[in-house]
Protein 1
Amino acid sequence: MSIAGGVEKSPSRGASIHSTAMQIFVKNNNRWEGPPISGPQAAAFAAELKKTHIPIDHVFAHTCYLINLASTKPDIVEKSVNALVDELERCELLGIPGLVLHPGSHLGAGIDAGISQIADLCQQVIERTPNVRTRILMETVAGQGTNIGASFGEIGLLLKKIKNPKRMGVCLDTCHIFAAGYDIRSEDVYARTMDEFEREVGFKSLKAIHLNDSKHPLGSRKDRHEHIGKGHIGEEAFRLLLADSRMARIPMSLETDKDEDLKEDRENMATLYRLAKASYPP
Ligand code: MN
Ligand code: MN
Ligand code: ZN
């Protein structure tokens, strides 16, 4: 949900599409710095959220897109660490339990070097934010270019290297795992993919889900989101996921194109509720 006009404006937007969960940015998503969130703003966010059906533990944030913990450029690494610390502190102030992060792009240094650097820097960030409870949620990515985190094995290895499991977690993006080559379109392949997720990452680490269909085919490694049921993934995968008891308490958000009137969000929500055999609006 957009935070245009301030983070405290997002809950009413969520309520307008009958949300029970929500993802927001905690500052401008294309800038290194932003004005701090004031105490009154945080209080207004909490008060606005209370008027909705969105509990705070179903709210999660997404980091700005400039952060790259696997960068080979020292100035980018330093800015990335500082930005991640700042965003975690913003989340803590708002009471948000999870902050979604793309693991990073190694820019040619190699996957192993990248994973080690990301783990070391996450460790530093965690140690610099001892009073923050917000988890860093590593997002599964599509695998474009030198992006790390397209395989469950890479995400699992990253988590294992970090000493504070209570500060870490995972966000599963359906478009990204499909583009990375994990099929979920029928019962047998869905089961195989999720078994591998359990083996390599573990459902106990799963703290957020992005529900997106894909404009590109299985294994394309291209990250383009499509409306639910309208892309190469199709409705059956979402029906299977919504019926999967391991996903039942995990907050989910859409990341699909929309206009300001949120008509597309309502349409995607209606599709998901139909697939979950529930009525929408609830
Ligand atoms: Mn993302
Ligand atoms: Mn995503
Ligand atoms: Zn994406």
Protein 2
Amino acid sequence: MIKVLRYLKQIKSDIILSLVFVVLSQLSSLSLPLLMSLIINNGIANADLQFIKNIGAIMAAISALHVVLSVFNSYYTSKTSAGYGKILREDLFLKVESLSQIDIEKIGTPSLITRCTSDVKVMQDFILMSLRIIISSPIMLIGGTIMAVILNPKLALTILAVFPIIGIIVAIVLKTVIPIFKKRQKMTDEVNRFLRQKLSGIRVIKAFNTINKEDDIFSEKNQRLSFLVLKLQRIMSVLIPVCIVLVVVALDTIIFIATKNIDTLSDPVKIQNTVGDLQAFVIYMIMIVAAVTMSAAMFVIVPRANISAKRIKEILELESQIKDPEVAKDIDNSQKGKVEFENVSFSYEDGENNVLSNISFVAEIGKTTAIIGSTGSGKTTVANLLCRFCDVKEGRVLFGGVDVRELKQKELLSKISYIPQKPVLFSGSIRENLLYGDENASEEKLKKALDISQSSEFVFALENGMESFISQNGTNLSGGQKQRLSIARALVKDADVYIFDDSFSALDFKTDSLLRKALKENLSATVIIVAQRVGTIMNADKIIVLENGKIVGMGKHAQLMEDCAVYREIALSQLSSKEVLQ
Ligand code: DUT
Ligand code: MG
């Protein structure tokens, strides 16, 4: 909790102002019942009109002041909590951005989203409530008690009866409500996870006609969540009447004791005094009980915030598995663009079977190196290791002659342009998406990238050309259009190494070959092409054949056709015998 609260330091002045106004507005309201009793006891009892007027004027002034103070109190407490939420969300977002793919998968995207949104909201509410309740209820409780004692010590004794009841309420809340809050937060995560996954796969669900099944699963989860919320509400709805009973019992007791006094008194002035005291007393009593009720709410808010704070802290404290070295090395200029794998082995989970074993190859500067292999053979993993999205288990990956673990990741990634297997486009215009490659790219560069990636034709056929809007994940584009735009985006970036992970798979053969031709003519950097189609890579300077995470062949097309059975099999299954001999 403390770690998450330390952000408050940044908004110190707002907190101090909130506190000042909370305290002042509470103190101003405390004096009113006392003044009221003065009017009854001294003014009305003695029929002193001037006295009533004077005290009345003071009361009016204090009331006006109270209103002003309360407005400032609301303003500053809201400002503080909103400001706190903003700082916390910003920091969380920065942290999440710095995490590696594996770290993110460990917590899960839906949980990350809930933690950055609803957990932050819980903390924000906690700050607001703390400033308003946690500070003001003790003032009301203690202040009310002191005022009551000043007024009439004998009657004040009845207030003591309230304190044990506070204890009972707190115990009930701690025991029953808090575990439910924990469960509710978990359940919310689960519902979010389910929704996210299913909504992104809605087309598949429709295609396989499994909507009813998904509905049932969702209903069940939803039911469990709503059951928890209901249970919470039920407990809360018992707690509130309990507090109201408390008020009634306390008020009855005071009135009972007071009437007993009246019975035994014969002096009318004393009776009048008792009425004044009683009036003020009832109000103090209500204040005290209100404070108790609010404290009960506090005992719900604090543990709830504690749970959220823990969840937020987990992210803030998460050490990214991919860390920059303390002393980073620089890329060797003479080897700029050279990529080398040295006996690399890798598995996604510790101890599991290796996804890559003993991989060694060199991608020469300015040459095209292709990686081919059946699905699941580890091609994307090679690209992930090169970008250092994960670290090798054994061996080394060298980039420009330096181990990628000895480079700053930012530096490494600035030299690589990567087209992921699954094209990701962001909502915005085509131009905005292209500028992700290089925000300062010139108009010509953007057009050139569109030309090379064979996108110009379809982009400029659109009504708004480069300004056309792409919806999130490019759902308003075809698979091939998305692939070509993500290639264009990567070409906008000036890099030493370009990695195309199966980026031509959705293109027809003609576009595929035109694109490769244009790439060859325009790219002088090192190119690594991952593909499943032999046609895409047969002209590469070096072809690496992967099978089950091992290299089973390396060389040029003609040579591999002769001495690599796996390659020959793939080639013959895809190409006619004439094409194979090209
Ligand atoms: N794998 C994991 N966790 C991951 C990604 C992959 O366990 O996060 C496994 C699945 C597979 C192996 O690693 O058995 C290699 O996966 P990769 O994605 O590297 O295979 P690919 O050659 O790129 O397959 P495809 O052609 O289907 O893209
Ligand atoms: Mg892949």
